[in-house]
Amino acid sequence: MSDHQFLNYIGGEWVEGSGTDPIPDINPADTREVIGHATDSQAQDVDAAVAAAKEAFEDWRSMTPPSRGKIVQAAGRLYEQRAAEIGEVLTREEGKILAEAKGEVQKGANLVDFLSGEARRLNGETVPSEIPNTFAYTVRCPLGVVGLITPWNFPMAIPAWKIAPALVAGNTVVLKGAEQTPWTTQLVVQAFIDAGVPPGVLNIVQGRGATAGAALVDHPDVAAISFTGSTEIGRHIWARGASLGKPVQCELGGKNPIIVLDDADVALAVAATAKGAFGSTGQRCTATSRAIVDRRVHDQFVEELAKAAAQVIPGNGLDPRTTMGPSVDKEQFGKVQEYLEIGAAEGVEVICGGRRATDGALEYGLFTEPTLYTGVTRDMRVAREEIFGPVLSVLEVDGIEEALDVANDVEFGLTSSVYTADVNRVFRYIDKIETGMLHVNSPTIGGEAQLPFGGMKKTGVGPREMGKTAIEFYTEWKTVYIDYSGGFRGGNLY
Ligand code: ADP
């Protein structure tokens, strides 16, 4: 059994943090396996990383954007070449099955590839002035040192989709990855190092949220924070940012519905729901956690979905037969088990699952049986709160209007889906649904590099990530007026 050490990367050197309580990196499919330990960074380590990033900023921002883009693009190519290696590490640490892990690496590569191209499109506008002989235009400029705080559920793709636009725009970066996935964080950064990012431009601090994460948020030389993670911590960081006058971008919770109307192709809707609810163990931000089903197809839908749930094979994600991995760690697993108790206490009908899975080797991992609830009403906690496990609540409705009303009756608004063959209903859904991303006749999950990603309502704050909008958070606008008349005109009167 190996004991890898995951260090900080500060100013171009791998260094230990100054804390004395290293964080164990545990395989959630078999918690007897300790993969390694991440160094325990403290505020002084964050200080060192921010100082290195601050020092590197002037040279990095002075480089031409296309030159920065070339380095970022090279990192994307390395991800593609290293997909097998990174994917395997990701599966061991996070638990998702190998095919999903490799898919995530490919997605990270796509994102970096797309965002590197934005280096050639950091355009402003020329705008006609009211004043004669005046040239007016806008230009983007970087913010300085940005802090990135990322979660474990996409430990490769999420850091990649924050690092790439931050660097392309000319910022320097301090990344605090998740405690559960320090090896993947290290591999994400290693690709940028190998691609030629100069020392100090990209730094990692490994460590706990309450120490390293909080110190990064609070640091006076950190100009902005981009965060993806839990609603609880995100709101805390958002408030903290506001009190420090610091821009914060947060991508937080979801309670994503799939709406199945009476004219839906039920078999397709069932396949999409199973993939969205049980794929990645329900640990995607975009996972399907509510099926809102017309009463005319409800029983058929539930019967077929129960059959699909029975096909799911929980296990170690490195085994090619496995189709669903474990919860990422004991805390997350405990939360899922707690919601199973809440569901039972709320009086749902358990069609399948509802328990920990312990057959054979599963007893050493953090596995939950794929769980299907019916008889769920919109006021129940299992229908309102994000569970982040393989637990699906089915809510029965009568027609599209009630379906939309139930779908929108939660505080989150990340993603959604509708299954119907009726174009009028499709457009009604697109008009009324309160989610930042929506799908027609496809699962709630996924997101392509070139399209904006993010939610409405309490799912988050700040500009959308990914797509062309990704650059927004990482740049400021300068508006420039140049008087070329040679005389004094004094501007306009307001
Ligand atoms: P999850 O439930 O996905 O683990 P968290 O919101 O707890 O979500 O964690 C997401 C990221 O936020 C992790 O990198 C974690 O270390 C970090 N984090 C947790 N608490 C804080 C905090 N108080 N300040 C800054 N970062 C934090």
Strand content: 15-25%
Instruction: Kindly name the structural category.
Output: alpha/beta
Strand order of the largest sheet: 15-16-17-14-13-19-20
| Corresponding CATH architecture of the largest domain | 3-Layer(aba) Sandwich
As for the CATH topology of the largest domain, it is Aldehyde Dehydrogenase, Chain A, domain 1
Q: Based on CA inertia axes, which overall geometry fits?
A: globular
Q: What is the share of helical residues?
A: 25-40%
- Uncertain regions: pLDDT < 50 for 5+ in a row? none
Please give the radius of gyration in angstroms.
Answer: 24 Å
Bound molecules: adenosine-5'-diphosphate
* Straight-line N-to-C gap: 72 Å
Please count the beta strands (DSSP E, at least 2 residues each). 23
What would you say this structure looks like, in words?
The chain has helices at 43-62, 65-81, 83-94, 98-117, 157-168, 182-195, 209-218, 231-244, 266-278, 298-311, 330-346, 399-408, 423-432, and strands at 4-6, 8-10, 13-15, 23-26, 34-38, 126-128, 134-142, 145-149, 172-176, 202-204, 224-228, 248-251, 256-260, 288-294, 349-352, 371-374, 391-397, 412-413, 415-419, 437-440, 456-457, 460-461, 475-483. By secondary structure, the chain is of the alpha/beta class. The protein has 2 domains: 4-252 and 459-478, Aldehyde Dehydrogenase, Chain A, domain 1 (3-Layer(aba) Sandwich); 256-440, 3-Layer(aba) Sandwich (Aldehyde Dehydrogenase, Chain A, domain 2), CATH 3.40.309. The strands form 6 sheets. Strands 15-16-17-14-13-19-20 form a 7-stranded mixed β-sheet, sandwiched between helices. A 6-stranded mixed β-sheet has the order 10-9-8-11-12-22, with helices on both faces. The chain is globular. The mean pLDDT is 97. Residues 149-152, 176, 178-179, 209-210, 213-214, 217, 229-230, 233, 236-237 line the site of adenosine-5'-diphosphate (ADP).
